[in-house]
Amino acid sequence: MGSWGTLGPALLSLAGVVLGAGGSLFGQYLVSRVSARQVEVQEAAAHRAEVKDAVLRLVGVALRLEKSALTRSEGGGADADLGQLVDELWLAQAEIDLAARSESLRGAAYRYAFSLAAAARGDTADVSELREPQARFMDAAYGDMWPGLRRADGDASVPR
Hints:
Strand content: under 5%
Number of helices: 4
Structural class: mainly alpha
Order of helices and strands: HHHH
Radius of gyration: 29 Å
Number of strands: 0
Distance between the termini: 81 Å
């Protein structure tokens, strides 16, 4: 065998190489974890933006449809483009159906759109009947955009 005087430095050099390689591999592992987390954050932000745009589109069409239905129910006459608004409503609901990750948002959007279409047909006597489906839709949209986070309970007019 050899003496410890010549074998010791060689073993220490080998141990240094092994520790360096292990440290390098561990560093690469940490970098890949951070990169994966950054990708998740970016994907979540893109999803939130897509859902937000679809929700705002549906809410915009819903507002115009409610105004038209309210005008008609007050005796202001039927709005000529009520059919066009209903078509836009279902198109906006389809956008949410495509963008949503959760079935609860898809279902709430459909129920809200269905209630709005019923109001446009004149099946709903009071536009205030739309508030519960609207609140459930907005709660589901919040849940889809920020899963796991509770929405702050304010002065909600709809009991939960």
